[in-house]
C-alpha cells in the first residue's frame, strides 16, 4: 500500500475500533351507548382488496424488467450470471480465538478465516487509533505480514505525520482532536467475498461504509458517510492470516434516505456509547 492508497475521498488515511415500535392508539368508543355498528363497511373491504390486487400486479410488472417481446418464446437460462453469495452466518467453526491488543487474531487456516481476518483488519485500519503514534505501530505490526510491516510502518508514519493533512481534517499536530471536538473514523463492513484462494495466499474483497470527520461546535469537517470496496491480499504467515497488499475503490453506493442529519453532540455521544464489533464468518 502506497501513501496514496491510504487516503479516501475525505482525505483520510486508512485503524482500530472495538466493538428497538409504537403501537397505534386505538379509538376508544362508548361501549355502552348507541346502536352497535359494524367495524368495517363492505365498501372498505372491497377497496382494500382492490389495493392489494393492484400492488401484486405492480410488483409482477416491475419484475418483468425490459424484456423484448420478440424474445418471449426464447428459453431462458436458469444459471445465474454470478454464483450466489455465501451467507455471512455462523458455521459452527470459531474463527477468532485470541486477540493482539484490541485486534482479533488467530484465524482458521481456510477461506472462512481469511474473510474474517480481512474484515477485522479493515476495521482496524479504518479506525481513529491509526492517527495516534502510540497505537498506529501496534496496529500495523498486527495486521501486516512481517516481511512488509516495517516498510508499511514507514509509509504510514509519513502520511499520518503530514501537518497539512492533519490540519485539513481538523486534528492537532500530534493527531489528537482539539478541545471540545470528537474525531470520528470508523469502518463498518457490510460483507466480504473470496476473490482467490490457495493454501498460503488469499485475496478477499470487503464492502464497507465509512464514517469520517470531526464532531463539535464549528467543525469545518463534519462527520460524513462514504462507501468503498477494499481488496486485501493476505498471506498465511506465522500461523495466521496477514495483509501483504491493499487497494480500494468507491462503491457500491446506495441511494441515501431523506433523514435529518444528527447534531454534533448526538454524533459524539453515539461514538462514545456504541462500541464496534468483531466480524467473523
**Count of discrete alpha- or pi-helical segments spanning 4 or more residues:** 6
Let me know the largest β-sheet.
4 strands, antiparallel
Q: What is the share of helical residues?
A: 25-40%
The CATH top-level class label: Alpha Beta
Q: Give the radius of gyration.
A: 26 Å
List the helices and strands in order: HEEHHHHEEEEH
- The class by helix and strand makeup works out as alpha+beta
Instruction: Outline the low-pLDDT stretches.
Output: 1-80
N- and C-termini, Cα separation: 26 Å
Structure description:
With 281 residues, the chain is of the alpha+beta class. The protein has one domain (3-16, 90-273): Nuclear Transport Factor 2, Chain: A (Roll). Helices cover 28% and strands 22% of the residues. The chain contains 6 helices and 6 strands, in the order αββααααββββα. It has helices at residues 42-64, 111-125, 133-143, 146-160, 163-168, 264-273, and strands at residues 98-100, 103-105, 182-197, 201-215, 224-237, 240-250. The strands form 2 sheets. The protein has a 4-stranded antiparallel β-sheet with strand order 3-4-5-6. The protein has a two-stranded antiparallel sheet with strand order 1-2. A hairpin with a 3-residue loop joins strand 3 and strand 4. Helix 3 packs antiparallel against helix 4. It is globular.
Sum up the structure in keywords.
single chain, 281 residues, alpha+beta, Nuclear Transport Factor 2, Chain: A, four-stranded antiparallel sheet, two-stranded antiparallel ribbon, 6 helices, 28% helix, globular, disordered N terminus
Amino acid at each position: 500500500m502506497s501513501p496514496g492508497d491510504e487516503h479516501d475521498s475525505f482525505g483520510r488515511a486508512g485503524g482500530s475500533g472495538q466493538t428497538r415500535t409504537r403501537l397505534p392508539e386505538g379509538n376508544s368508543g362508548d361501549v355502552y351507548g348507541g346502536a352497535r355498528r359494524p367495524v368495517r363497511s363492505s365498501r372498505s373491504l372491497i377497496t382494500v382488496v382492490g389495493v392489494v390486487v393492484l400492488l401484486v400486479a405492480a410488483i409482477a410488472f416491475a419484475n418483468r424488467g425490459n424484456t423484448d417481446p420478440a424474445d418471449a418464446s426464447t428459453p431462458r437460462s436458469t444459471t445465474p450470471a454470478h454464483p450466489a453469495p455465501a451467507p455471512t452466518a455462523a458455521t459452527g467453526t470459531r474463527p477468532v480465538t485470541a486477540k493482539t491488543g484490541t485486534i482479533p487474531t488467530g484465524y482458521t487456516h481456510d477461506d472462512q478465516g481469511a474473510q474474517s481476518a480481512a474484515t477485522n483488519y479493515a476495521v482496524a485500519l479504518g479506525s481513529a487509533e491509526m492517527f495516534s503514534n502510540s497505537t498506529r505501530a501496534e496496529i500495523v505490526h498486527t495486521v501486516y505480514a512481517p516481511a512488509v510491516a516495517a516498510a508499511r510502518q514507514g509509509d504510514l508514519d509519513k502520511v499520518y505525520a503530514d501537518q497539512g493533512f492533519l490540519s485539513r481534517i481538523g486534528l492537532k499536530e500530534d493527531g489528537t482532536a482539539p478541545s471540545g471536538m470528537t474525531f470520528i473514523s470508523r469502518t463498518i463492513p457490510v460483507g466480504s467475498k473470496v476473490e482467490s484462494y490457495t493454501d498460503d495466499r488469499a485475496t478477499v474483497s470487503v464492502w464497507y461504509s465509512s464514517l469520517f470527520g470531526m464532531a463539535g461546535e464549528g467543525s469545518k469537517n463534519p462527520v460524513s458517510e462514504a462507501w468503498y470496496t477494499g481488496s486485501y491480499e493476505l498471506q498465511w504467515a506465522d500461523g495466521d492470516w496477514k495483509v501483504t497488499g491493499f487497494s480500494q475503490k468507491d462503491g457500491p453506493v446506495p441511494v441515501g434516505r431523506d433523514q435529518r442529519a444528527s447534531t454534533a453532540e448526538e454524533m459524539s455521544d453515539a461514538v462514545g456509547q456504541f462500541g464496534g464489533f468483531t466480524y467473523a464468518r
